[in-house]
Amino acid sequence: NTTVICGIKAELANPTVEAPGKGYIVPNVDLPPLCSSRFRPGPPGEQAQAASQFIADVIESSEVIQAEDLCIERGKLCWVLYCDLMCLDYDGNVLDACVIALLAALKNTQLPEVTVNTETCTPVVNLEKRHGLNIHKHPVGASFCVFDDSILLVDPTAEEESLLTSQLTVVTDEAARLCAVHKPGGTSLSGEKLQECISRATVRQKEIQKLIDKVIHSVKTSQ
Amino acid sequence: MTSLISDEQILLFSGSMMEVCGSSKVTLREFGCEQSLLSRPDGSASFIQGETSVLAAAYGPAEVKVSKEIYDRATLEVLIQPKVGLPSVRERSREQYVRETCEASLLLSLHPRSSLTLILQVLHDDGSLLSCFLNAACMALMDAGLPMSCLFCGVTCAIDTDGQIITDPTAAQEKESRALMTFAIDSKERRVMMSSTKGSFSVPELQQCIAVSQKASEKIFQFYRDSVRRRYSKNL
């Protein structure tokens, strides 16, 4: 029942001095009190901050978008993509839902063409001409939870999450390369179990990618 | 007042070359530890790996805030203080890693409705910071005398562009690497308690890194044993 909505906001900004040829992506995961009684209003809690950091790490390590693609003019102008992920209904496994929502939203993003006027040095935005983002990889996460060191459960619900002893999230892309093996502590896991999780994650990646492609296709045809 | 460094214990372990998995070699930078160096906390330790250095202090079991009270076990709080500025989202995620690893090894149900606080202060960051946090945390918890089911240690591995595995990389090696992984290994069965990765890599590479980390963990556990033994043989 977990529902996550992802909105992508694009803004023009100056690139940083350290990386003049790169744009940047800023993910933010919000777990508002609306989605579950376990979250209190106020500044984001530890879980939301850890999730934001996890999403940022996934974007960086999977290279879903090359930061160079977001550059418009080297050292002067680049795109900043703010990816806001808002959880509407929290029923466990929010990380997987966030990764899928992010990927689907990025595939759906259309950026307008921007040229820099050489005389006035101001950006000119051509809203008629839009193009999609260049998505290099399709990372998809698969979460598992471990009970009593032996029982593995795929895609835990909120109730299962409150009882588990350890959690594991594996993110893979279409070439079966691992982008993240996120296991924040908990009881230890043997090599065989880990291998089992990884092979299950690769199967899931294929399923999810098919699903996203189908949805994007249906959106395009209906327009 | 007793001197702050009265029962100081400095042990240095020089990383020697060791053969594992055929060609790859496990080399750790020189590492050292000092326990009970602060007088106020219930347990403290500083852990040094090469140039990276972390100071850890553990408080507890103490009284807990009602809002954070858990009726059947102790509440563990981990706070990471960066060298400059306020803790950011990155520190928060590292806090989560350290906290959940400690929660798994500590016997928290022995102290219900109480609080344990672990403070980790970065003194210098030269790569492998997360593994240094874990090692310092484990040493501080040991120093505080908290009951634990097993010990744990952190090992960071980097895969460089040629596919070579470097254990305990420096900040410069981390920057050049293709992938970076940190594991927490338990002392009982040498299994993976925590894993945090950056960059993309294949499944065999992951398995190899785990194997290398398990080898490296033996050195660290031996060091834990030696340092505690030396400390108590001096005191008694």
UniProtKB/TrEMBL annotation, chain A:
Signal peptide span: none
Pfam families to which the protein is assigned, alphabetical: RNase_PH, RNase_PH_C
Domain Exoribonuclease phosphorolytic: 1-112, 139-201
Family: Belongs to the RNase PH family.
PANTHER family: EXOSOME COMPLEX COMPONENT RRP43, EXOSOME COMPLEX EXONUCLEASE RIBOSOMAL RNA PROCESSING PROTEIN
Classification via InterPro entries: ExoRNase_PH_dom1, ExoRNase_PH_dom2, ExoRNase_PH_dom2_sf, Exosome_comp_Rrp42_subfam, PNPase/RNase_PH_dom_sf, Ribosomal_Su5_D2-typ_SF, Rrp43
rRNA processing among keywords: yes
Subcellular location: Cytoplasm; Nucleus, Nucleolus
Superkingdom, taxonomy of origin: Eukaryota
Record's protein name: Ribosomal RNA-processing protein 43
Gene Ontology cellular-component annotations: cytoplasmic exosome (RNase complex); nuclear exosome (RNase complex); nucleolus
A GO BP annotation: nuclear polyadenylation-dependent rRNA catabolic process
Predominant location category: cytoplasm
Organism: Mola mola
Record GO terms (molecular function): mRNA 3'-UTR AU-rich region binding
Keyword terms: Cytoplasm, Exosome, Nucleus, RNA-binding, rRNA processing
Automatic annotation (TrEMBL), chain B:
Any single GO BP term: nuclear mRNA surveillance
CDD domains in the cross-refs: RNase_PH_RRP46
Major localization class: cytoplasm
InterPro entries xrefs: ExoRNase_PH_dom1 (IPR001247), ExoRNase_PH_dom2 (IPR015847), ExoRNase_PH_dom2_sf (IPR036345), PNPase/RNase_PH_dom_sf (IPR027408), Ribosomal_Su5_D2-typ_SF (IPR020568), RNase_PH (IPR050080)
Gene Ontology CC annotation, any one: nuclear exosome (RNase complex)
Location of the Exoribonuclease phosphorolytic domain: 28-147, 151-215
Subcellular localization, as worded in the UniProt entry: Cytoplasm; Nucleus, Nucleolus
Keywords: Cytoplasm, DNA-binding, Exosome, Nucleus, Phosphoprotein, rRNA processing
Gene Ontology MF, one: DNA binding
Record-stated family: Belongs to the RNase PH family.
Self-association and partners: Homodimer. Component of the RNA exosome core complex (Exo-9), composed of EXOSC1, EXOSC2, EXOSC3, EXOSC4, EXOSC5, EXOSC6, EXOSC7, EXOSC8 and EXOSC9; within the complex interacts with EXOSC3, EXOSC8, and EXOSC9. The catalytically inactive RNA exosome core complex (Exo-9) associates with the catalytic subunit EXOSC10/RRP6. Exo-9 may associate with DIS3 to form the nucleolar exosome complex, or DIS3L to form the cytoplasmic exosome complex.
Name of the molecule in the record: Exosome complex component RRP46
